[in-house]
Amino acid sequence: MKAMLLTGAVIGYMIFGLLQITATASGIQHLTGLWWLICWFGALLVGWMPGLGTALGIYGAHADWGWSLPASFALFLGIPALLFLPASAVAIYSAIRER
Question: Which of 28-32, 53-57, 95-99 comes out lowest in average pLDDT?
Fold first, then answer.
């Protein structure tokens, strides 16, 4: 069960990471009008920065994709927190069980 939950958490994290990078690249492209490949490179450079990457990603999901603001915020703030809950629960359970 532990391996299945961790595998699901890793796959979910990768899917949402790809969505976040795509939203950040869309935000950069919508804001600057640069070529998409340059925007992807920029998204990979600034995407790891919590403030700037998150703001550009929320902007890209809202302005370029047409998502609502709550859905855009959920992509960057809500759903990643939900992905960490099962992984954290498994880690805590394993630590307690090993004692």
Answer: 95-99
